[in-house]
Write a sequence for this structure.
């Protein structure tokens, strides 16, 4: 369990002065990781918002060794760093205890970087991969990704006379990682700091590959006031659109259960990317979204061996 | 070491300690890698380079090297992992070919831009489409502007020698650039030859230990590798890459000489064969040089002043040396084992014409694109080139700048 007082005394290894948007949750996730780690960290990052806003030469926000090489290979790059570490340590050329972390946005993780991530996890490198999932290609101007949820308006899934946003549901990347049989997989949210930091600590302590999928609200792409980032994350979790759970050696555990599962509408209404869901003619969309969220939540409850509550009427706007 | 090894007891000097072995090109490169004993090898198998990493993984399994072998899921990840490992501070090697090198393309630029001295064995093979597993130089040529040093090998011996030297060249403090050593697919990679192999200790002593000044694993001095440059710095950082390239020729020559002292085989930027008084010169890269040498011998016997200029170092390109060597010849035939599809023959032709632009005594020059996709190039075809060069020599006129040699039109 993380303790706020202790955490606040830790040295800043991800510093201020970066150029992320006001209200961006990616730097919050990075800072939480730095607080979670006791050992020195070597961090890799895919091309994307976090990387371009934190490493503008000649400045850097990373007060820890950091490497960026390309968009699709954060996991492969850190595989190499970790392999070098193993080799040098085995040969007696290096004696420090270090942990390795690879970061990627949802684009660099769900889509273009999936192969590299899958390879690294399958090979069993001791690394923590954190996907800061803001549900679109935010760095290039809000294009859809495999993580974009149903109905969301992005610049490549625009709303028009026929278009109603993204037609498909999001890819369940967390399940894909669970299917890799790696020892630690989790979903987290910066809005639940204790839950997330505890997960990061568990992941870093795992002797093998670990993965945390963090929903990272994006004030630009989701269009909400910057001061509401944490609130948005809370709504995502409390509506069960983004459940918090972990899978340790294949065992599912829901780490936070909303006291009362809120209708997903409460979460979607806050974001302009879903505003068309509340317009005449699109009445079918919200129940569709809700049905998907309910089904996924029930599946998760089953996997975690939890009772499934009686069906409630679907809320509509 | 192959069963066929025998002590070369008759040899004197540095050669005395060497073992003569029957090795394929792939075996020779794997042997060099074993003797170099890199910290990390990350690779993905691809024909005809597969054997290199396959043999090497056996060395790892037998505990003959200290290497961490990363069997990645693609060549893109192979080069990405090499980049991570090299940035971490390790000595890193890999091998690939054709589509594999093409898949690495994005990362080749990043390896050079980050100044990481990775050494790659590239077994030359044609690029798709159509898919073809045999030799030509399209793969290496595709990577020629990536900032990698490129060294071509004529045979298995050179592939072995070049691999060892490449480590020193790449890691030289004034260079710090990745280097690829190439050999022709199947012709060299799978052809068995007599190779003189240095003792392990000699190689280890020659390559020394790698102690980079800047490394990612230096957690006490955290550094950011691969940051974002805007218009205010990108140009300057790319400009800095020109410095090691300018210095590389000197370093390559220095290391080639030093290698000569331990092996009896001294290397330069190129090799001239009966070149001094040659009137008709063929310029080429790689294994075809061997065939061309026999043709030159035959022509010399017939009284024709034929000569060969084999280029060893393609990047950086020895422009001045080429200009000095080729000016004043009666005719020069360039043989390109890849087609630049530029409307002006292959890439070697473009380089050589450029090299000779300022020469007062520019020779007439013609390009022959040959051997694509492993098409055989025997003495008869090379003879054809020399015949045509003699025709050109008589008139001084080149009727067509480039042609395709040995193709059904």
């Amino acid at each position: 369990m993380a303790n706020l007082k202790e955490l606040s005394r830790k040295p800043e290894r991800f510093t201020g002065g970066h150029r992320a948007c006001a209200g961006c949750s990616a730097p919050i996730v990075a800072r939480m990781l730095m607080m979670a780690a006791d050992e020195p960290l070597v961090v890799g990052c895919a091309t994307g918002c976090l990387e371009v806003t934190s490493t503008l030469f000649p400045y850097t926000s990373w007060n820890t060794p950091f490497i960026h090489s390309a968009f699709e290979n954060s996991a492969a790059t850190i595989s190499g760093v970790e392999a070098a570490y193993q080799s040098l340590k085995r040969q007696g050329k290096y004696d420090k205890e270090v942990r390795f972390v690879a970061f990627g946005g949802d684009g660099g993780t769900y889509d273009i970087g999936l192969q590299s991530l899958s390879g690294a996890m399958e090979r069993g490198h001791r690394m923590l991969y954190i996907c800061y999932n803001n549900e679109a290609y935010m760095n290039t101007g809000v294009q859809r990704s495999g993580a974009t949820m149903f109905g969301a308006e992005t610049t490549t899934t625009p709303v028009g006379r026929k278009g109603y946003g993204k037609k498909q549901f999001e890819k369940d990347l967390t399940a894909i990682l669970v299917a890799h049989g790696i020892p630690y997989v989790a979903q987290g949210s910066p809005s639940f700091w204790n839950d997330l930091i505890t997960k990061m600590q568990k992941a870093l302590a795992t002797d093998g590959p670990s993965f945390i999928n963090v929903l990272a609200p994006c004030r630009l792409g989701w269009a909400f006031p910057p001061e509401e980032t944490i609130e948005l994350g809370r709504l995502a979790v409390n509506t069960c659109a983004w459940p918090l759970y972990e899978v340790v050696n294949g065992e599912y555990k829901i780490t936070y259960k909303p006291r009362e599962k809120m209708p997903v509408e409460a979460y979607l209404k806050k974001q302009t990317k879903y505003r068309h869901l509340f317009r005449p003619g699109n009445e079918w969309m919200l129940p569709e979204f809700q049905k998907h969220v309910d089904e996924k939540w029930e599946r998760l409850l089953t996997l975690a061996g939890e009772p499934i509550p009686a069906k409630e009427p679907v809320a509509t706007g | 070491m192959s069963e066929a090894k025998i002590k070369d007891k008759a040899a004197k000097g540095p050669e005395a300690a060497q073992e003569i072995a029957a090795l394929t090109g792939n075996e020779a490169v794997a042997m060099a890698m074993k003797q170099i004993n890199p910290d990390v090898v990350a690779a993905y198998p691809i024909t005809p380079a597969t054997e290199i990493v396959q043999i090497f993984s056996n060395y790892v399994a037998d505990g003959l090297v200290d290497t961490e072998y990363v069997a990645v899921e693609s060549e893109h990840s192979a080069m990405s992992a090499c980049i991570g490992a090299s940035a971490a501070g390790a000595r890193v090697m890999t091998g690939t070919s054709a589509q594999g090198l093409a898949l690495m393309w994005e990362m080749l630029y990043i390896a050079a831009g980050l100044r990481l001295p990775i050494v790659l064995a590239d077994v030359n093979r044609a690029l798709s489409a159509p898919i073809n597993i045999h030799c030509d130089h399209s793969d290496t040529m595709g990577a020629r502007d990536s900032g990698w040093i490129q060294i071509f090998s004529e045979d298995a011996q050179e592939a072995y020698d070049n691999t060892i030297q490449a480590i020193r060249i790449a890691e030289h403090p004034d260079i710090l650039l990745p280097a690829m050593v190439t050999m022709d697919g199947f012709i060299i990679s799978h052809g068995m030859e007599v190779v003189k192999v240095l003792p392990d200790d000699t190689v280890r002593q020659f390559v020394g230990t790698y102690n980079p000044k800047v490394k990612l694993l230096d957690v006490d001095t955290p550094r950011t590798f691969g940051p974002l440059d805007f218009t205010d710095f990108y140009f300057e950082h790319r400009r800095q890459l020109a410095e090691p390239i300018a210095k590389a020729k000197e370093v390559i020559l220095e290391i080639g000489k030093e290698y000569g002292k331990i092996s009896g085989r001294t290397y330069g930027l190129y090799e001239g064969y009966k070149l001094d008084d040659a009137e008709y010169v063929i310029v080429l890269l790689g294994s075809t040089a061997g065939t061309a040498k026999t043709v030159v011998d035959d022509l010399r016997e017939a009284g024709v002043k034929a000569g060969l200029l084999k280029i060893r170092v393609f990047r950086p390109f020895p422009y001045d040396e080429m200009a000095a060597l080729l000016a004043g010849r009666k005719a020069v035939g360039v043989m390109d084992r890849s087609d630049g599809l530029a409307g002006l023959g292959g890439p070697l032709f473009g380089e050589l014409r450029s090299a000779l632009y300022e020469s007062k005594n520019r020779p007439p020059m013609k390009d022959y694109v040959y051997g694509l996709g492993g098409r055989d190039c025997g003495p008869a075809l090379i003879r054809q080139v020399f015949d045509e060069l003699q025709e050109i020599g008589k008139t001084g006129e080149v009727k067509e700048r480039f042609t395709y040699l040995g193709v059904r039109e």
The longest strand of chain B covers residues 19-24. The CA atoms of residues 148 and 227 of chain B lie 21 Å apart.
